[in-house]
Amino acid sequence: MTADLSVSQARRIALAAQGFTDPLPRGPVTRSHLRRVVGRTNLVQMDSVNILARAHYLPMFSRLGSYDDTVLESAAWRDTARSPRLLTEYWAHEAALIPIDDWPLMRWRMDEYRGGRYRYAREVLARSQALAADVRDVIVSRGASTPREIEETLGIERTPGEKGSWWTRGEVKHVCEALFASGDLSATRNGNFVRHYDLAERIVGERVDVRVDRRDAHRELVARAAAAHGVGTVADLADYYRLKTADVRAVLGDLVDDGVVREVSVDGWSDRAYLHRDATVPRSVRRSTLLSPFDPLVFFRPRTERLFDFRYRIEIYVPEHKRVHGYYVLPYLLGEQVVARVDLKADRPGGVLDVLSSHVEPGVDEGVVAESLAADLRATAAWRGLADVRIHPRGELAGVLSAAL
Asked: Crossing angle of helices 171-181/119-127, nearest 10°?
């Protein structure tokens, strides 16, 4: 039986759905451009690793080019009359920035996390209700606060020599995390990526008490995942917001009946897929860019392999001598293919972007890839305020990439 879509068509649908065929800005990137990107992705996964740039800054760069980080920061962590907050942080696809209007769609998850998301945090909260009340009282009186600031206000002293709360979380940190997971608290971040916990109503506003039925929320989240994918399997749709596949299947029939998605087959995919009604199949994709390891285009690795024939694993937690490609490896998109991967590190004191290793995928023209990648590496370096790019002699692409630079 002939498939409804080829893999190439599925790739182009996915790239268009994620915004890689949208026009690049002609001037400075603004909040309206951010809205457009988030309108495509629906979420931005966060990560603390800052060896190049924290992961949540990269998706906008990949889709829009160089921009001022404060465009994202002000939309997520500042709120003024002229520029109201657009995004807030919650557990969507792991820790993620989501549109603030989507807060009610997560209330069912907050209910599930009422006692905390993690076992130890639940245990701490269960035995420390008085501490939880004290934490809330401190936040009510002093506003957004770090766990250390709350501890100082409460007169809680750490053991001499104990590291800060990022490394050794005291009970206050666990209580804050539990209250964050349950939606009682929300948070902003400072330039060092430290959470400042605050009352959810101060950050989310009137939406904080809006409730959406669990099934209705699942139906809307699956619809948004389908729009962000363009075309995806049940597993793809479930992973986007970390839903259970049973919950996805429970609402897919509604979405099919309503014409939001239709069932299709993709050549070479063993599972049926669902095509969103707004999906388009561009004739070609002309974008080239580096991708965050946690970009929504590639963060579900089985889908990445199906779409791009690109096996991708994060090696941050792999011992150095066992790493195949490197510590912080970014895939490189050229047209509709992922053609290479590079291990990058910003040498900020030296003003240099280090390419610690560079690898090309089989069957692609190394010269073409190197010329394009060289230009994008320079653009990435400039975005991060680095004056030069330095190629290290590791990886089969290193020599030709060095020559291209």
From this structure: 110
> Which residue(s) pair with 95 in the sheet?
91
pLDDT in tens, 144-198: 999 999 999 998 876 655 554 433 458 899 999 999 999 999 999 988 899 999 9
For the chain, the C-alpha Rg in angstroms (whole number) is 22
d(CA 21, CA 4): 22
Question: What's the distance, Cα to Cα, between the start and end of the chain in Å?
Answer: 48
How far apart are alpha carbons 117 and 188 in whole angstroms? Answer: 19
pTM of the model: 0.93
**Concatenated DSSP letters for 339-360?**
EEEEEEEEETTTTEEEEEEEEE
How confident is the model over 333-379, as pLDDT tens digits? 999 999 999 999 999 999 999 999 999 999 999 999 999 999 999 99
Query: How far, in Å, are 25, 50, 162, 172, 347 from residue 167 at the CA level?
Result: 40, 16, 9, 13, 24
> Quick one: how far is CA 265 from the chain centroid?
28
**Domains along the chain with CATH numbers:** 106-209 (1.10.10.10), 287-404 (3.40.630)
Q: How far apart are CA 65 and CA 378, in angstroms?
A: 12
How many CB atoms are closer than 10 A to CB 227? 20
Instruction: Yes or no: say if 353 and 344 are a contact pair by the CB < 8 Å rule.
Output: yes
Specify the DSSP class assigned to residue 321. Answer: G
Q: Which helix (H) or strand (E) holds 384?
A: none
CA–CA distance, 302 with 310 (Å, rounded to integer): 9
